Sequence to fold (376 residues):
Amino acid sequence: MSDPLTANSALRKAYPELGADQISAALDQATLSQLAHNRYGIDATHLLLTRDGLEQGTRPEVAQLRASQLKEIGAHTVIDMSAGLGFDARAFIDQGLNVIAIERDPVTAAYLRVNAPAATVIEGDSVTLIDALLPQLTSSDVVFVDPARRSGRRTLDGSRAHPERDPERWSPSWSFVTSLAQGGVRVCAKVAPGFSPTLLPMQWSGIWTSMHRDGVETMVFSWSDGARYTARMVDEQVTTFSGRGVSPAQVSPVLTYLYEPDVCLVNAQLLNDFCHSLSGLLRIDSESTWLTSHAPITHPMLRRYQVTQTLPNELKALRKSLINLNIGDITIKSRGMNINTDALRRELKLPAGSPGTIVITTEGGARTTVLVHHDS
Fold:
């Protein structure tokens, strides 16, 4: 039932023995279950949830990919240092792994026991407990950690906590996570999708993952799988591209086609490697993520646009050009340019007209604006 008052009345009628607090808790769980379904596409009616836990939980598809990888390297046991509601723990268990799950918050730990009953749940501070647990691991086993990366501040509407940008302010800190591997322990960590590859210690590798074109997380690990950096796009299928951060690719002015690479390639800083891997694919500027070519190139990690013409950068001249082209329903693509596209759209004040797309980016160190149409 979508109406809280109706649902409240129905529960009171069906379960008169329940108190007001119990009914409120049941309604909260129903709301969170629907939120989990909307966000992750899962049936969460059998899970106990919290709003903060949902904000930080791993998407099930990504959790399964991670669990499969740990299984493939021969792990038998995983110590999950920040288990939360158990999204990752459940995926590990599904792969047949033994899971020791640590959770500091008593309520979340109680929910975790319900959500992942096959896990050994330990309540307490993982930083304090981990040293006593490490002797239970073999050389092929793994410590998994998902550091808390939220600051105390929340968004204006109160719906989400602001992310903490400084890795040393994560809990546990990034330096603590990397120190775990210094004793020969295999360490796997889930970190922010925009995590910089420059922060990886030597010998560590990383997988930057997107889902449906949105960056969702980075998984870093202390062993090598043969690739230093991997971009992984999860869509109708899983597409990966690996590299090591090669020297700059060739730079060219905007040609016949422009390409918007998937965010996982951008976050993994693999655009140069990617250009080297595809004949004719060039960068238009070292500071721009847009790519270009003379001939059309098709790849799952690329959205292709055909360039129609170059437009003025100045607001009044741009408006005049768009009106002359009868474009009124404008889409503005300006990733990496620090442009408020909604404000620019309002400033253009275009009359009703046909739809059109402009790309505003950097070409050869200078701002450029081009009219394009989606080609693939």
